[in-house]
Structure formats: C-alpha cells, structure tokens
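Hi everyone, sorry if this is the wrong subforum. Our group has a chain we'd like a structural model of before ordering constructs, and none of us has done structure prediction before. Sequence below.
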Amino acid sequence: MLSRSPLDRAEELRRDTAALTAGWSTASVLRVDATGRIPVADGGVAMVPAAEVAEAPPENAVFLGRADGRHLWAVPVETLSGDSTDLRAFDDVLTDTSAGIVVTAVALLNWHRSARFSARDGSPTRPSAAGWSRVSEATGHEEWPRSDPAIIVLVHDGADRVLLARQPSWPERRMSVLAGFVEAGESLETCVVREVREEVGLGVDRIEYLGSQPWPFPRSIMIGFAAQADPAADLEFTDGEIAEARWFHRDEVEAALAAGDWAASTSAPLLLPGSISIARAMLESWVARPVR
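Answer:
Right subforum, don't worry. Here is the predicted structure as tokens:
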C-alpha cells in the first residue's frame, strides 16, 4: 500500500531557495508530532496552509514535493491538538498521494531527530537542501537520510501451508510473516536465509523477490520475499525474537483475512496485520495465487 505514491518529489527544487520561498505562500503543511502521529479530519490526512505555520519555510521544515502545482511541506511539533493518529492506524483511507506525503514526512523527520550531531566528527549539524540533508557546523560535511533495509519473508511449503509467527511482545493470536534487518556486508537473499534460520531454525530455498515498501518506523525499507521450507522440520526459536510459530493452511489464512486485522474486535483464532503493511499484501497474494 505504501509503495504506490505518485508524489512528485521535485528534487530539483530542494536547493532553489527562491523557488521554495515563492511557493510557500500557496503551500500546504503537514504537522507531525514527536511520536510520529499526524492530524486527521474527515477520515483523511489534515494539512494546513503554510501561512498558518510561518511567513517563510522554517529551518526545521522538510520539503516533500509537489501535488496539483502546490508545494508540500512537513514540520515537527511536540504535540498536536484535535484528532490525530499513527500512520499504522490509517488503513485503506489513505489516497495514493497522501500515503506518499505521510511516509516521506514521518521518515524524514524521524531521521532529523536522531541526526542532530555528525556521525563523522560529533559536531552539531543543521538542516540543508530543504530538509533532505544535514551539514556539520564544524567542517561543512554533508550527511543524508538513511533508509535501513529489512527483509520480510513469506515462508511456505510449496503447496497449501504458510509459516506465521508471533513476537514475545504481541498478544496471543496476533501473528505475521518473518522479518529482520539486513546486516553489513550481507546480500538480501543471504539475509533471508539467515533470518529464517535464526528466528525459527528452518533452512529455506527457492527464494523469490515479491516487492518492497517504505516503512518509516523509524526509517526502514521493507523488501519482500517468498521462500520454501520443509514443514516436517522442527522449529527452533534460537534468537529470542519469536515466542511461537506454526504452519497454517491456506483456508485458515483466508478466513483470518476475511475476519479483519490486528485491530479488529473479533474472537478469530488468528489475527493478521492491517492493509497498510506489506505483510498483509504478501498473504493476500499467496492466498489468491500460490507461490510455486
């Protein structure tokens, strides 16, 4: 869902101070609080005219791009008044454009909150390029936003069963596919093999790329795969990240998808992630068209 944004990022404007200043008068601004919550109104993302924020782009504002000829910005705030929500609770009310706006804003502002000092020399940094980089005040060294790659993998048996797991912090019945961060010097495919073995003790093969999705919690990119494993092999939870895991039949997964998601008030025996997550898209696709 979060991969579909048609937002024009207008990279050519990020260092054009005159153009950004001129566009500010008709711009729209998204406020994002320190926990990543955003304001909502009428079931959608609520943005405000830039004139309500400042006369010109503040130093801590980030330029997100253009939509319908209008500049779009985001600014950090400590708290929000009125209705607000976390991106993960938006579900399918986001439009394609608003999904791109929110994901970019939350990811960039998360990076700024943790990059106030240079990773190279420890000196204070200040925003530059309309929020798309930070510059060391001591040396002028420029640093850019990070995206941490993480694999997410649907492990199946080559037929009608899929492996789902629950982290220790999740309530009973709440389960999903496996995921983990890519380590330094590691390919994506090698990460798939390592993470599955570490988390549930299984070897996998027939690794297949499925798609990707930005995931700004805090600033990740989720890279989706399918892989095949032997359902007769013993499960071993060796790294402590998985509390339980088991194989589910396609019919069970289909029923769980129909019952809703993690937030649903239901007594269903299996609860699956919401539609904003690539995990749900992977499971929906597997139910509709099995990976072979």
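For your construct planning: The mean pLDDT is 93. The chain is about 20% helix and 30% strand.
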